[in-house]
């Protein structure tokens, strides 16, 4: 193993380097400058706001259309169910009339015999 022999000068240079490193932390970092003018940046922000507004409007319209479609489907289902119920009543009435007619016919034939 190698032993390190540090002298006074080595310790002084190490301390100076450490102090420089500490000071370097506080120095401002170089900034990336924006080449656009404030008016250009404002126009870009306004365009982004307008795009977001249009997206919200489109989303609301899509939700409204979906609600209208769901309501129309619900109404159509209700109408279909009502028509089916009326058709079932009509069929029952026809069967009842046919049964009454057949019964009356059977009575007439029984009297004739």
Summarize the structure.
83% of the residues lie in helices and 0% in strands. It has 113 residues and is an all-alpha fold.
Description of the structure:
The structure is a single chain. The chain has a domain at 44-113. Helix content is 83%, strand content 0%. The N and C termini lie far apart (137 Å). The radius of gyration is 46 Å and the shape is rod-shaped. The longest helix is centred in the middle third of the chain and has 75 residues, at 38-112. It has 113 residues and is mainly alpha-helical.
Structural features:
2 helices; rod-shaped
Largest sheet: none
Structural class: mainly alpha
Number of strands: 0
- What are the low-pLDDT stretches, counting only 5+ consecutive residues below 50? none
Counting DSSP H or I runs of 4 or more residues, the number of helices is 2
- What is the H-and-E element order? HH
Mean pLDDT: 91
Note the gap between the termini: 137 Å
Q: Per the principal axes of the C-alpha atoms, what is the gross shape?
A: rod-shaped
What's the helical proportion of residues? Answer: over 70%
Q: State which percent range the strand residues make up.
A: under 5%
Rg value: 46 Å
């Amino acid at each position: 193993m190698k032993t390190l022999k540090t002298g006074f000068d080595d310790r002084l240079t190490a301390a100076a380097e450490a102090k420089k490193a500490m000071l370097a932390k506080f120095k401002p970092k170089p900034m990336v400058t924006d080449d656009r003018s404030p008016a250009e940046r404002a126009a870009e922000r306004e365009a982004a706001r307008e795009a977001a507004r249009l997206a919200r409007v489109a989303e609301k319209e899509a939700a409204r259309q979906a609600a209208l479609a769901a309501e129309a489907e619900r109404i159509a289902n209700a109408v279909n169910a009502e028509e089916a119920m009326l058709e079932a009543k009509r069929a029952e009435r026809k069967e009842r009339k046919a049964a009454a007619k057949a019964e009356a016919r059977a009575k007439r034939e029984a009297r004739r015999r």
